[in-house]
Design a protein that fits this description.
The protein is of the alpha/beta class and about 400 residues long. The protein folds into 2 domains: about 170 residues, 3-Layer(aba) Sandwich (Rossmann fold); about 200 residues, 3-Layer(aba) Sandwich (Rossmann fold), CATH 3.40.50. It is about 35% helix and about 15% strand. The chain has a 6-stranded parallel β-sheet with strand order 3-4-2-1-5-6. A 6-stranded parallel β-sheet has the order 9-8-7-13-14-15, with helices on both faces. A 3-stranded antiparallel β-sheet has the order 11-10-12. The chain is elongated. About 45% of the residues are buried. The mean pLDDT is about 95.
């Protein structure tokens, strides 16, 4: 259940509405947008505000500027693409805030129009959650709408700071994301299976801790596999490993037994001599990894083992590839798991940038029940954390 007020529970008609969106989209070398999914996800909220004749003031970050303006990270391509999607011109300012911008919004901007401020992270006050910067943003509007779930775990000025000065509610995307992800923890269709991949155990510690009390089974793949295999006493060769997490891995193996959670690790591995896309490779059991080789993907028996577990699940949450899927020679495991999840009868939810990249690569995004727009935010929510971008909104 979402216990915060939404855009439908506050008067936005003929109001100046400041909207935090997540337009951190990928750009190519010519500054063309290569994936406009995040822009499209904001359209239900924007169209609602336009229909209500609100003055819509959009703000977003793009990339990782160090608190100064960078021409390659200006939001001009985003404003241009959004204009095409909503069928009306989006005026894009070259600054985040100025008296001239405020005057334009107050006196020249028509109701039902959309404007866009410059990249928030061009100002160090954004990440610092600076009071003066937050006040400046809030001074341009009557109402604040947060529809940037991907930034909800950041206590930044545009996410948390502005909420201290004007009424703050959630947009449609924010509400949808929180409702779907919290339902995984509160009332999943069972059996509930989670698949966790990626390279580092340390990135997933809190998620594993929280999920072990809620899931029926847990599949571990990707680079984190080898820390768990080493913790169980296997030789892992030159595979990636976090030696400082070995005790944690042993504790999690014990905790899974205690909580009667089925913990599945690979039983065979595709290994390579070198970390290279064209390296010599072979498939071996986990008992037979040579000292000079490294794990790159899960093997055929592991794929079948994991697919069997997937076929019996009622709910599946997947975060993290199970191999180096970017390279064709080591992508079979991730593609097989992705297709098995997509073809299952379960409620399927995916989160995390690499997971989304894999789904896009295999054209499976539309086959999932929900693909989360927020990697870090979705993981922190599943850790049981209170996210600043949600906590700071008005309660129902």
């Amino acid at each position: 259940m979402f216990n915060k007020k939404t855009i439908e529970e506050i008067d936005v008609e003929n109001k100046k509405v400041l909207v935090r969106v997540d337009y951190n989209v990928p750009l190519d070398d010519k500054l063309n947008i290569t994936d406009d999914t995040r822009i499209k996800l904001s359209l239900p909220t924007l169209n609602y505000l336009i229909d209500k004749k609100a003055k819509v003031i959009l703000m977003s970050h793009l990339g990782r500027p160090k608190g100064v303006a960078e021409d390659k990270l200006r939001l001009n391509p985003v404003a241009e693409r959004l204009s095409q999607l909503i069928g009306k011109n989006v005026k894009k300012f070259d600054r985040i805030y100025s008296e001239e911008i405020k005057d334009y919004i107050d006196n020249e901007m028509d109701y039902g129009e959309v404007v866009m401020l410059e990249n928030l992270r061009f100002d160090p006050g954004e990440k610092a959650n600076d009071q003066k910067f937050s006040e400046s943003l809030a001074s341009m509007a009557d109402v604040y709408v947060d529809d940037a779930f991907g930034a909800a775990h950041r206590a930044h000025a545009s996410v948390e700071g502005v909420t201290k000065y004007i009424p703050a509610v959630a947009g449609f995307l924010m509400k949808k994301e929180v409702e779907i992800l919290t339902s995984l923890l509160e009332k999943p269709e069972r059996p509930f299976l989670t698949i966790l991949g990626g390279s580092k155990v340390s990135d997933k510690i809190k998620v594993i801790n929280n999920l072990l009390g809620k899931v029926n089974s847990l599949i571990l793949g990707g680079g984190m596999t080898y820390t768990f295999l080493k913790a169980k006493g296997y030789e892992i060769g030159r595979s990636i490993c976090e030696d400082d997490q070995l005790d944690y891995a042993r504790d999690m193996i014990s905790l899974a037994k205690e909580k009667k959670v089925k913990l599945l690790l690979p039983v065979d591995i595709v290994i390579a001599r070198e970390f290279d896309s064209e390296s010599e490779k072979k498939m071996v059991s986990i008992q037979s990894i040579p000292v000079e080789w490294m794990g790159m993907d899960i093997g055929d028996k592991s794929i079948e083992l994991f697919k069997d577990e997937i076929s019996n699940a009622g709910t599946i949450f997947w975060n993290g590839p199970v191999g180096v899927f970017e390279w064709k020679n080591f992508s079979r495991g991730t593609e097989s798991i992705a297709r098995a999840v997509a073809e299952s009868n379960a409620v399927t939810v995916a989160g995390g940038g690499d997971t989304l990249a894999a789904l896009k690569k295999y054209n499976l995004t539309s086959e999932f029940s929900h693909v989360s727009s927020g990697g870090g935010a979705s993981m922190e929510l599943l850790e049981g954390k209170e996210l600043p971008g949600i906590a700071s909104l008005l309660d129902k």
